[in-house]
Amino acid sequence: DAGVIQSPRHEVTEMGQEVTLRCKPISGHDYLFWYRQTMMRGLELLIYFNNNVPIDDSGMPEDRFSAKMPNASFSTLKIQPSEPRDSAVYFCASIPTPGQRNEQYFGPGTRLTVT
Amino acid sequence: AQSVTQLDSQVPVFEEAPVELRCNYSSSVSVYLFWYVQYPNQGLQLLLKYLSGSTLVKGINGFEAEFNKSQTSFHLRKPSVHISDTAEYFCAVLSQGGSEKLVFGKGTKLTVNP
């Protein structure tokens, strides 16, 4: 298996623009997670899905952030409008069902820079 | 709610020296414990995990960790490090029987010098 795939790997955009990050989980994995990593705050869980349904979005910072999972093999994280403080590395991870006890498989991340 | 404290943000060591990366957690319920490693410009990958049973857990690349319930600790050790162990290490907890929400520590940057 190719592992968790994220695109793009790097994104540079200007403040105010819309940004869409993409993730393809490992085939057969029913849980998908979005994380944000910064020097100041470390690794934060933004949202996670089970069987394409959002289960916990309490980590989504504000209404500018939205995430969708239209099918089992694809998810997006959208920021609109983007701000410089959104600059971070965004990771996607997936686990199979049953989820408990299983390691999370992380993608390589998308490095977002908002100028 | 759970929380994880990694006491050292940076640990420099010389090649072939032993190393211990410290992790303490706080939780009102029983937890599963994990150590992940992140190499530069990569995602995280699992080093080892404690679910139950023996409190000494062995992982990949010669790492091991010991679960100490009374001290709520899960320290990571390696008897002899290599240059290739230079990376950031994250301790994480997951509540048993709860959600899938993994709570990570802030990470420890291990630098192995020749």
Give a verbal description of the structure:
The complex is a heterodimer of chains A (115) and B (114). By secondary structure, chain A is mainly beta. Helices cover 0% and strands 54% of the residues of chain A. Chain A is built from no helices and eleven strands. Chain A has strands at 5-7, 10-13, 19-24, 31-38, 42-50, 53-56, 65-71, 74-79, 88-95, 105-106, 110-114. Chain A is globular. The model of chain A has no long low-confidence stretch (mean pLDDT 93). With 114 residues, chain B is mainly beta. Chain B has no helices and twelve strands. Chain B has strands at 3-5, 10-14, 19-21, 24-26, 31-38, 44-50, 56-58, 64-68, 73-78, 87-95, 103-104, 108-113. In chain B, strand 8 (64-68) and strand 9 (73-78) form a beta hairpin. Chain A binds chain B through residues 4, 31, 33, 42-43, 45, 48, 50, 55-56, 91, 93, 95, 99-101, 103-104, 106-109, and chain B through 32, 34, 41-46, 49, 51, 90, 94, 96-97, 99-102, 104-107.
Distance between the termini of chain A: 36 Å
User: What is the overall pLDDT average of chain A?
Assistant: 93
**Main sheet attributes: strand count, strand direction, barrel closure of chain A:** 7 strands, mixed
- Coarse shape of chain A: globular
Identify the overall geometry of chain B.
globular
Radius of gyration of chain A: 13 Å
Number of strands of chain A: 11
Would you identify the regions of chain A where 5 or more consecutive residues have pLDDT less than 50?
Answer: none
* Biggest interface found: A-B, 22 and 22 residues
Give me the Rg of chain B, rounded: 14 Å
Q: Tell me about the biggest sheet of chain B?
A: 6 strands, mixed
Low-confidence stretches of chain B: none
Instruction: Give the oligomeric state of the chains in this entry, treating copies of one chain as homo and distinct chains as hetero.
Output: heterodimer
Mean pLDDT of chain B, to the nearest integer, reads 94
**What percentage of residues of chain A falls in helices of 4 or more residues?**
under 10%
Count the helices of chain B. How many?
0
Number of strands of chain B: 12
SSE series of chain B: EEEEEEEEEEEE
DSSP strand (E) fraction of chain A? over 45%
Structural class of chain A: mainly beta
Which class do the helix and strand fractions of chain B yield? mainly beta
